[in-house]
Design a protein that fits this description.
mainly alpha
Length: about 350
C-alpha cells in the first residue's frame, strides 16, 4: 500500500563504499523485498478480512494494530509526539486522506472486485499525482515525458478494465472506489508536502500520530455503520491482524530504514513491485482469474507511472569568469547578476 508518512528529503550523494558495507547493501535489499511482499499481500489480507468483517471493521482493525506497532516503536526509540495545535490539525486531515478514507475505500472495493485489480488500481497513485500537478502545483511543471507518462498510464487502466468490451465482467462501482482510494493518496501526499514539511518532527512521530488519529476517526465511524459480528472466524481475524501489524505498522518501519539507507528515490521503487506481487498472490492463494488484458494493462500502467516520476534535468551552471584585479567593469557586474538567477532557479527546481 501507499506509504502513510511524508518522505524524507533527498540525501546527499553517498560516499564511496568502505570495507564491510557490502553486507549492509544486501540487508537493505532484503528489507526492500520484504516491504514489497508485505504491501503486495495486503490486498489479499483485505479480501480475506472482508469475508468475516464489514469493510469499516477491517479498516478499524488494521489501523488499531498498526497504531500498536508504531506506538511500541515510539517508546523503544524514545521519540516524542508532535507539539502544537496547528501540526495536529494538519495531521488530522492527513490521517483522513492517507489512511481512513483510502483504507476504507479499498475494503469496500474488494467486496466486488478481485484483489489483483485492487493492487493494480493502487499503482495509479503516481498518475493521479501527475494529473493534480497540472492543475494544483504550479511549481511542479510537468515535462513532455511526464505528460506522456500520464496518458500512457491511463491507457493502461483502460486496458486492464477492457474498455473495448464495454467494461464487461468488471464491477464499475468497486473499480471506481479503488481508483478513488488511489486518488486520495495523491491528494494526501500533496497536502502533507505543503503543510507538514519542515516541521522538525521525525517521520516516525508523524506517522505514529497520523495512524493513531485515523484509528480514532474509524472508532467513531465504525459503530455508526456496522454492528458486531455474530461470530468471529479465525482466518479473517488473522488477516486483519496481519494487515495492521505488518502492512500498516511494521512496513512503515521497514520503509524508514530503506529511505535512510538508500534515499527516497530508490525506496519509492517498491511501488512498481506491489501490483506484481498482489496479482501473483491473488491468483495463487485466492484462485482469482486473469485474462490477458490484466497483466498487459498493468505493465502499461507501471510504465506510465515510471515516466511521470522522471525529473527535468538542468544543465550545470556556467563557471563564473575570474575578475581582473583592480578593474570593476560593467560586464563583471552583469556576470554577477545573471549568475545568481539560474542558481536560484535550480535550487527551486523539483
Amino acid at each position: 500500500m501507499s506509504p502513510a508518512a511524508p518522505p524524507s528529503p533527498s540525501p546527499a550523494p553517498a560516499p564511496a563504499l568502505a570495507p564491510g558495507v557490502a553486507s549492509r547493501l544486501v540487508d537493505w535489499r532484503v528489507r526492500f523485498g520484504v516491504l514489497a511482499l508485505i504491501w503486495g499481500f495486503s490486498f489479499v489480507f483485505i479480501k480475506v478480512g472482508t469475508e468475516g468483517f464489514a469493510p469499516f471493521q477491517v479498516t478499524f482493525g488494521r489501523l488499531l494494530f498498526g497504531t500498536a506497532v508504531l506506538a511500541v516503536a515510539l517508546v523503544v526509540k524514545r521519540d516524542r509526539l508532535p507539539r502544537g495545535a496547528r501540526v495536529w490539525g494538519h495531521l488530522t486531515v492527513a490521517a483522513f486522506l492517507l489512511n481512513a478514507l483510502p483504507f476504507s475505500l479499498f475494503a469496500y472495493a474488494e467486496l466486488t472486485i478481485p484483489s489483483t485489480l485492487a493492487g493494480i488500481c493502487n499503482a495509479t497513485t503516481p498518475l493521479w499525482g501527475m494529473l493534480l500537478s497540472l492543475v494544483a502545483l504550479s511549481e511542479d511543471r510537468p515535462t513532455r515525458v511526464r505528460a506522456a507518462g500520464l496518458g500512457i498510464g491511463f491507457m493502461g487502466v483502460l486496458t486492464v478494465l477492457g474498455a473495448w468490451q464495454g467494461f464487461s465482467g468488471v464491477d464499475v462501482t468497486g473499480t471506481a472506489l479503488a481508483l478513488l482510494a488511489s486518488f486520495s493518496y495523491a491528494v494526501g501526499w500533496i497536502y502533507v508536502r505543503r503543510t507538514l514539511s519542515g516541521t522538525g518532527v521525525s517521520n516516525l512521530s508523524l506517522a505514529g500520530s497520523q495512524v493513531g488519529l485515523a484509528t480514532l476517526q474509524l472508532a467513531i465511524v465504525t459503530p455508526l455503520f456496522t454492528s458486531l459480528p455474530e461470530s468471529v472466524e479465525l482466518l479473517p481475524l488473522l488477516a486483519v491482524i496481519a494487515l495492521g501489524a505488518l502492512g500498516t505498522g511494521y512496513a512503515m518501519l521497514l520503509q524508514y530504514g530503506v529511505v535512510a539507507e538508500v534515499g527516497p528515490t530508490t525506496a519509492a521503487m517498491v511501488t512498481y513491485f506491489i501490483p506484481v506481487i498482489a496479482t501473483a498472490a491473488g491468483v495463487a492463494l485466492l484462485n482469482e482469474q486473469l485474462t490477458w488484458n490484466t497483466p498487459v494493462g498493468a505493465i502499461v500502467v507501471l510504465a506510465g507511472a515510471a515516466l511521470t516520476q522522471t525529473r527535468r534535468t538542468t544543465p550545470p551552471p556556467k563557471p563564473r569568469p575570474t575578475p581582473v584585479v583592480g578593474i570593476r567593469s560593467a560586464g563583471a557586474e552583469r556576470v554577477g547578476t545573471t549568475d545568481g538567477a539560474p542558481c536560484r532557479a535550480q535550487a527551486s527546481a523539483p
